Automatic annotation (TrEMBL):
Matching PANTHER family: FLAGELLAR MOTOR SWITCH PROTEIN FLIM, YOP PROTEINS TRANSLOCATION PROTEIN Q
Keyword Cell membrane: yes
Cellular component GO terms held in the UniProt record: bacterial-type flagellum basal body; plasma membrane
Keywords on record: Bacterial flagellum, Cell membrane, Cell projection, Chemotaxis, Cilium, Flagellar rotation, Flagellum, Membrane
Flagellar motor switch protein FliN-like C-terminal domain location: 254-324
Protein name (database record): Flagellar motor switch protein FliM
Pfam families per the UniProt record, alphabetical: FliM (PF02154), FliMN_C (PF01052)
Topology of this chain in the membrane: Peripheral membrane protein
Compartment annotation: Bacterial flagellum basal body; Cell membrane
Domain of life: Bacteria
Family stated for the protein in its record: Belongs to the FliM family.
Gene Ontology MF: a single term: cytoskeletal motor activity
Length: 331
């Protein structure tokens, strides 16, 4: 009974049985403590944790945004792509879920082993092709009769889109996607065992006025070498990247080349606004420093050194005498 939702009539029946003595509270407690057997389908082995599924979702949400920008530029029409779902299912179930005639890109992702599938709904595929050939983006399903020219056009488009997949995966691992085959019949795809667990990322896609799905199928064997990279801990650690000695040296050199304002202050004087308004050429201001006293050299408006004025190569200069001690010594 634990975990089941009872209707009001079932609740009333239980209360009635307890009140009439047909069932005791101890018997109900024993029944609740009885171990429940949970059915486990070995054909649907759950080999990815929820944490890893969330990481894959984040990766492909980024991929969907990049793909939206890429296709918008290539097709010159309204494009919207977003992640509809991320599921782990047997490969056989994935093959059964897609149309008998569709557009399937099979590509490698070295250095990872195995292949990844990208299935494009025929309506979406032909809408893309119509736009590339100068049409309005009309969609018609005739994927089983693709000509060689049409195949080349679609392969070229999706080969260029793989740069976005490479960028989306960059935080997890470096991959180099390469298209190796374009298939239209899913029944001919026998790259892994039918019972092998795969991740299926479904992307809801809008091209102009045409809607459809793009499905990405990633076998477990492909992700197995980097499965630990899909944890939250790895994401948090990868966001805090240590600075290499070479980067530190470059940064130090850049800081050394930064320009600073240096001011040798001869002194200061306080006057009234009235005196300031009536100042003319030839007036003399008496400063608060004597001639023999050292000047203050300010670096970035902060007093840093005491100096004495003079000339060097017929130009005005100052000679540093000492460092100014104070609260800003560490800056």
């Amino acid at each position: 009974m634990a975990g089941d939702v009872l209707s009001q009539s079932e609740i009333d029946a239980l209360l009635s049985a307890i009140s009439t003595g047909e069932m005791s509270a101890d018997e109900m407690k024993k029944e609740e403590e009885t171990k429940k057997v949970k059915v486990y389908d070995f054909k649907r082995a759950l080999r990815f944790s929820k944490d890893q599924i969330r990481s894959l979702t984040r990766i492909h949400e980024n991929f969907a945004r990049l793909l939206t920008t890429f296709f918008s530029a290539q097709l010159r029409t309204y494009v919207q792509i977003n992640v509809a779902s991320v599921d782990q299912i047997p490969f056989e179930e994935f093959v059964r879920s897609i149309p008998n005639m569709t557009l399937i890109n099979i590509f490698e992702v070295p250095p990872l082993d195995g292949n990844i599938l990208m299935e494009i709904n025929p309506n979406i595929a032909y809408s893309m092709m119509d736009r590339l050939l100068g049409g309005a983006g009309s969609s018609y399903n005739n994927v089983d009769n693709l000509t060689e020219i049409e195949q080349k056009i679609m392969m070229s488009l999706f080969e260029r889109s793989f740069d976005n997949l490479r960028e989306a995966w960059d935080d997890i691992t470096e991959i180099d996607p390469m298209l190796i085959e374009l298939e239209v019949n899913p029944q001919f795809i026998q790259m892994i065992s039918p019972n092998e667990t795969v991740i299926v990322i479904s992307l809801n896609t809008i091209i102009g006025e045409t809607t459809g799905m793009i499905n990405i199928c990633i076998p477990h064997v492909v992700l197995e070498p980097i499965i630990q990279n899909l944890s939250v801990q790895y994401w948090m650690q990868s966001n805090v990247k240590a600075t290499s000695p070479e980067q530190a040296k470059i940064l130090e050199n850049k800081v050394k080349q930064a320009e600073l304002d240096i001011i040798a202050e001869l002194g200061s004087a306080n006057i009234t606004i009235e005196d300031f308004l009536y100042m003319t050429i030839g007036d003399v201001l008496q400063l608060d420093k004597k001639v023999e006293e050292p000047l203050v050299l300010k670096v970035g408006n902060l007093p840093k050194f005491t100096v004495q004025p003079g000339k060097r190569n017929k130009k005005m200069a100052v000679q540093i005498l000492d460092t100014v001690k104070g609260e800003d010594d560490d800056e």
